[in-house]
Amino acid sequence: MTDVREDRAHEETSGDAARWVIDSWTMTRREFARWARNPAGVLLALFFPVMMLVMFALFLGGSMTVAGGGDYTEFLVPGLLVLTMAFGLEGTMTAITRDLGRGVLDRFRSLPMAPTAVLVGRGVADLLESVAALLIVLAVGFALGWRWHGTLSAALGAVGLLLLLRAAMLACGIWLGLVVGRPELVMAVQILVWPVAFTSSAFASPESMPGWLGAVAEWNPMSATATAVRDLFGNPGVAGTSWAAEHALFLAVLWPVLLLVVACPMAAGRFRSLSR
């Protein structure tokens, strides 16, 4: 009798896992269908980092210096890749708040489906969009003179760090979208993202900043990823000797993992508590 109960429990667990995967993929396909109906929004999101890269590389690059005399475009491209991963936060928030305001999330919660499949589907779709954005920025950077000088495994590790940061930002965006609840409040959060992005080493080395601002930039999670990605690509990086600069790879993993550990349960809990 005990063996029969254990077999049934195993079957139910396996069935729940399979349903979760199927429901999550269904929600991912829903996001693809939404992209097909509104390609302009997707194209605009992909065009924005390209515009930033061209503007800084061509218009401002001639006046920028890099520690050790390296090429500024090679310094800039990894930083823009990091910002590309961070700037998707508001897009995720807008989509979540739109579904929340229209009652779409409440309808999904009333269906016999895995509770968090809606959030997972949104996250997977955004990650796939991020891969496309990475490829486009890398292609434009290559056209502007950027090159990677490391091994293929190191380059893949850099891409992995970028997608890890993106996953952490998506988790935060989903949770914040569920908290703010209205699309018009997304702008307030977006305004806060910009100072964090620009107080990093994405565009300039912390050594070129005032002392207190340079210290803030060195401990910025985006700086850790930017420095680690530059090292893995073999591009010019910062010349700092602080603990944060010397352990950038460790921090590039630690910061996103901490954000995921905190944001994922909070987003799932907030989603389950809707309309209670």
Structure, described:
The protein has one domain (15-195, 260-272). The protein is built from twelve helices and no strands. The chain is elongated. By secondary structure, it is mostly helical.
Characteristics of this structure?
single chain, 276 residues, disordered N terminus, Transport permease protein, antibiotic resistance
The N- and C-terminal alpha carbons lie at a distance of: 39 Å
> Which percent bin holds the helix content?
over 70%
Round the Cα radius of gyration to an integer and report it. 21 Å
Element-level helix/strand string: HHHHHHHHHHHH
Organism: Nocardiopsis lambiniae
Domain ABC transmembrane type-2: 40-274
Family: Belongs to the ABC-2 integral membrane protein family.
Membrane topology: Multi-pass membrane protein
